[in-house]
Automatic annotation (TrEMBL):
It comes from Bugula neritina (Brown bryozoan). The chain crosses the membrane at residues 74-98. Keywords: Leucine-rich repeat, Membrane, Repeat, Transmembrane, Transmembrane helix. This is Disease resistance R13L4/SHOC-2-like LRR domain-containing protein. It comes from the Eukaryota. One of its GO terms (cellular component) is cytoplasm. It holds the Pfam family LRR_1. Residues 231-342 form the Disease resistance R13L4/SHOC-2-like LRR domain. The keyword Nucleus does not apply.
């Protein structure tokens, strides 16, 4: 084997067919000399740190008095005595681009050669000790092959790249949207996903890591998408091509700011942005006029973003653990809101605007450090579920018996000493932490 320099790029030249044939009776492998009047093709096996990948078989060539090459030969015959060295030069360039530009663990892939009259013999072991120098014509050939080799590398990467995901397709049983987080993700290639779907359409998809460009190929009609542990925010640009998406979950990802593509997804009805390191929300979010569920739990907002009060279509708002100390009066403008979760925020006292939100049916004040509840809470005549767990109440506030629509009250860890007489319609959830409760008869 000799090394040569072509425009600053080093590659090797290997001549095939010299030396002794180590397997005289072999029908598949021979290191030379090649058999006369026999059809051959060449495969390249390129090694990386963790694995190797076999290339597709080259076009066939026929040994004999005058070398015959297939009509669409991969390497034109420019020098009669050294055709194989030209091809090997291209091989080494391919090897360079594989190891330089693709840093992934490939699985073994094998491709069968085209069917011909005589079965081709694959050459996998080369005699590297017998190589010749390059001629001027080889230089031209190596230069022309660079562009095509890059295209082949990209195509190979697309076929072998694996995505950590879980999905539900149209042929599977339905699943609760909330359970999508819990499904175990596994590694699949694009082709494996298509094969396992058997023609069915993917409707629910969970991706662990960055959103791949191939999602527009194997899940173009997805309606519910969950993305966890995102590292490249720019990968979210492919969301704009998922025009059927109505539910988007992004969690445990360091977004910092909301990507511009999300407010442009006008088909969204549910948006979950949990633990995404967000500190505010842009005014452009109000463009989502069909959005009825917004979850921004686990983000250190500090104050409620003004845009939320402008999102009049909201029916559910979840602000758990957002480091809020109060809520603005403008929140009462959400006249269609029926579920409000402000749990695990250090409110201390109930914000004055909450009793004004007459459409509320579910109110979660768990872990808000409340010492009591004001009488004005009885104005919530449609409220049926109230959670004041992990509060510092001591005794049950007098307003509770006056809330006639209330059917479910959660008091876990409130260290209560007594409950009101009205237990006929009030269902108490206290668990073992409410050990001090005494019931009236």
């Amino acid at each position: 084997m000799e090394r040569a320099d072509l425009n600053g790029s080093e590659f090797a030249v290997i001549r095939i067919g010299d030396g002794q044939c180590f397997y005289e009776n072999s029908v598949k492998y021979c290191n030379g000399p090649l058999r006369p009047e026999t059809v051959y093709c060449i495969k390249l096996r390129t090694y990386t740190e963790h694995d190797y990948l076999d290339s597709l078989c080259s076009d066939q060539f026929l040994t004999g008095g005058k070398a015959k090459i297939a009509k669409n030969a991969f390497i034109p015959l420019t020098v009669a005595m050294t055709p194989f060295c030209l091809f090997v030069a291209v091989i080494k360039l391919l090897h360079y681009f594989f190891t330089k530009k693709i840093n992934r663990n490939y699985q073994r892939t094998f491709s069968e050669p085209p069917e011909i009259k005589d079965t081709p013999k694959f050459i996998t072991d080369f005699d590297l000790s017998s190589c010749t120098t390059l001629s001027d014509t080889r230089n031209n050939m190596a230069t022309n092959s660079v562009t095509s080799s890059e295209d082949e590398v990209t195509a190979a990467a697309s076929q072998t790249e694996k995505y950590e995901c879980w999905w539900r397709h149209s042929g599977m049983e339905s699943i609760n949207v909330g359970d999508l987080f819990l499904q175990p993700a596994k590694l699949y290639t694009k082709e494996e996903i298509k094969k396992l779907c058997s023609g069915h359409v993917i409707t629910d998809l969970k991706i662990v890591g960055d959103l791949p460009p191939a999602v527009t190929e194997f899940a173009p009609l997805v309606t519910t998408l969950c993305i966890q542990w995102l590292t490249n925010i720019n990968s979210l640009e492919y969301l704009s091509q998922l025009t059927h998406l109505h539910t988007l979950y992004v969690s445990h990802s360091k977004l910092g700011t909301l990507p511009e593509v999300i407010p442009k997804m006008e088909s969204l009805t549910k948006l979950h942005l949990q633990f995404c390191d967000l500190h505010t929300l842009p005014d452009s979010l109000s463009q989502l006029t069909h959005l009825h569920t917004l979850v921004v739990s686990g983000n250190k907002l500090g104050t409620l973003p003004e845009v939320i009060s402008k999102m009049e279509s909201l029916t559910e708002l979840h602000l758990m653990g957002c480091d809020l100390h109060t809520l603005p009066d403008s929140l009462s403008q959400l006249t269609h809101l029926h579920t409000l979760d402000v749990s695990d925020n250090t409110l201390g006292t109930l914000p004055e605007m909450i009793p004004k939100m007459e459409s509320l049916t579910v109110l979660n004040l768990m872990g808000c450090g409340l010492h009591t509840l004001p009488d004005s809470l009885s104005q919530l005549t449609h409220l049926h579920t109230l959670d004041v767990s992990r509060s510092k109440l001591g005794t049950l506030p007098e307003v509770i018996p006056k809330m006639e629509s209330l059917t479910k009250l959660r008091l876990m860890g409130c260290d209560l000493h007594a409950l009101p007489d009205r237990q006929d319609t009030l269902v108490i959830y206290c668990l073992l932490l409410c050990k001090h409760i005494k019931y009236h008869t």
